[in-house]
Amino acid sequence: MLEVLQLFNADNLGRLAEGLGTTLALALISIFFSLVGALFGRIDGIWGRWVKLACRVYLEAVRIVPLLVWLFIVYFGLASLFNLHFGAFMAGVVVFSLWGWRR
Questions:
Q1: Do 101 and 56 form a contact (C-beta atoms < 8 A)?
Q2: I need a surface site. Which of 23, 30, 56, 82 has the fewest CB within 10 A?
Q3: Fold of 9-100
């Protein structure tokens, strides 16, 4: 019972509020960029064979690989392979935006 009461400590509530703000910002930014990616589903049936193939490969790759693996690929893999260093928040925005593009 004492652990539950310490959750409502002013210091802990501040941290929880900060985490909630970060989560909301990450979600809203990712949703915004995901709406742009919704065109992939529409382009898939409209344009030529090569565009359809590229869209299909992208969509299947995103579906097959779990989100946590994509987070590791963007955060650690791009840094070691291409010397691209993303912060944790930016890596989350990139991954959740790409994941939101799928159908």
A1: no
A2: 82
A3: MetI-like fold (1.10.3720)
